[in-house]
Specification:
The chain is an all-alpha fold and about 425 residues long. It contains 14 helices and no strands. The chain is about 75% helix and about 0% strand. It is a multi-pass membrane protein.
């Protein structure tokens, strides 16, 4: 197998492994849907540490806690999920970077994202058909689901062992000086604690650079909209009594169409990345336009009190007659727009910080998770139109900040300088 084929093989295995693990995780989240405590803590503790198999063991803990649900169990399970995800996502960013070069980082980001987000499709498809028309989920139903999820997450863990060490040449950062290589050799001899401290210092220094500060605004927006489409919007759909007896199963259908949008976006941008002469900005522009359309339709189609409605739901009217078709179409738009932002953020981070990607991806996930936790907190109190307004403001400035970083990078590349020197 050639070096390039081996790298592509690693990316595909990485994506499939994440697909299996997140099929379990996303379905687990759907079963716990409506419990904001679960989601807040899962994101809150997600990336306060950084460093892959921890998430699977955490899923086992979470599955037991939801089989026997108590308030304390959601706290504990969320902490386990967050600690595991810190290691998992940082390792993912590093694996994506070392298996890519400046010509393949965009393609590989799209391939990984499409495979990862396939998990939304499969997990929600099961929920939609298995629990259609049910108003109460029995312990037997939960047990069946979580036995299957345990097996699925185990399969994802085993797949990680198929990832091979890529050839040292041709990976991003190949032009490191001999001094840098000697430094890496010396660092490899340090103990684990020293490495962790060094990585933490690098992350702190990286936080205050102009490029990372600008990209943090974009990242913050992805955290806000992640909370919205993964937790708030499904709750809104389930709270609209005018949707009738299908309101609960529509949550699963909404997740399916979010997944379709994510898969379509990741696949499309992965295929087009090699022939894209205009950089990443057009994709991000498409993403924000798609999201603005979705936000406007949701504003018209959903009652304003849907996010904070009681368990009995809401009978309030929207600006137009609430339509299931419009609600599901908005789910697709939310997924498509999210894929635009995340694929391009993964691509630009892997390109800009190829020589030391772990701190960059740790900061990316830390900012995203903190903002997601904040969004989950205020989603319990703000009416729908205020939540949409917050995302519109952050989306606008996040897009402008991304444009700025991409323009600076493109200008330096045009002058023949090192892209990573910006």
């Amino acid at each position: 197998m050639s070096p390039e084929s081996k790298k592509l093989f690693n990316i595909i295995i990485l994506g499939i492994a994440f697909m299996f693990m997140f099929t379990a995780f996303q379905t687990c989240g759907n079963v716990a849907h409506g419990n904001y405590l679960w989601s807040v803590l899962s994101f809150k503790f997600d990336y306060t540490i950084s460093g892959c198999h921890c998430r699977t063991s955490a899923l086992y803990v979470c599955k037991w806690f939801i089989l026997q649900p108590f308030p304390w169990s959601f706290y504990t399970a969320s902490v386990f999920i967050g600690i595991a995800a810190a290691v998992l996502w940082t390792a993912q960013g590093n694996c994506l970077t070392i298996n890519s070069d400046e010509h393949t980082i965009g393609r590989n980001s799209g391939i990984f994202w499409a495979l990862l987000q396939s998990s939304l499709f499969f997990g929600n498809l099961y929920i939609y058909f298995a629990w259609q028309g049910k108003t109460h989920i029995s312990e037997s139903d939960r047990r069946t689901v979580f036995i299957a999820l345990t097996v699925i997450s185990l399969v994802g863990t085993v797949l990680f062992f198929l990832i091979r060490q890529p050839e040292s040449e041709n990976v991003l950062g190949e032009d490191e000086s001999s001094d840098d290589q000697d430094l890496e050799v010396n660092e490899s001899a340090q103990n684990t604690m020293a490495k962790a401290v060094d990585a933490f210092r690098k992350s702190l220094k990286l936080c205050v650079t102009r490029e990372m500060l600008l990209l943090s605004i974009t990242t913050a927006y992805t955290g806000l909209e992640l909370t919205f489409f993964s937790g708030v919007y499904g709750t809104c759909i389930g709270a609209v009594n005018k949707f009738g007896t299908e309101e609960k199963s529509l949550i699963g259908l909404s997740g399916i169409f979010i997944g379709i949008g994510e898969i379509l976006g990741g696949s499309l941008f992965g295929l087009l990345s090699k022939n894209n002469r205009f950089g990443r900005n057009p994709v991000v522009l498409l993403g924000i336009l798609v999201h603005f359309i979705a936000f406007y339709l949701i504003f018209l189609n959903m009652p304003g009190d849907a996010p904070i409605a009681p368990v009995e739901g809401t009978d309030s009217t929207a600006y137009i007659r609430s339509s299931k078709e419009v609600a599901i179409f908005c789910s697709f738009l939310l997924g498509l727009g999210d894929s635009c932002f995340n694929t391009q953020l993964l691509s630009i981070l892997g390109f800009l910080y190829s020589e030391d990607s772990a701190p960059a991806f740790a900061i990316f996930k830390f900012v995203q998770s903190i903002c997601a936790a904040v969004a989950f907190f205020y989603s319990n109190y703000l009416l729908l139109h205020w939540q949409l307004l917050v995302m519109v403001i952050f989306g606008f400035f996040g897009t402008i900040s991304f444009f700025s970083v991409e323009w600076d990078a493109a200008a330096i590349v045009a002058r023949g300088s090192d892209y990573r020197s910006i």
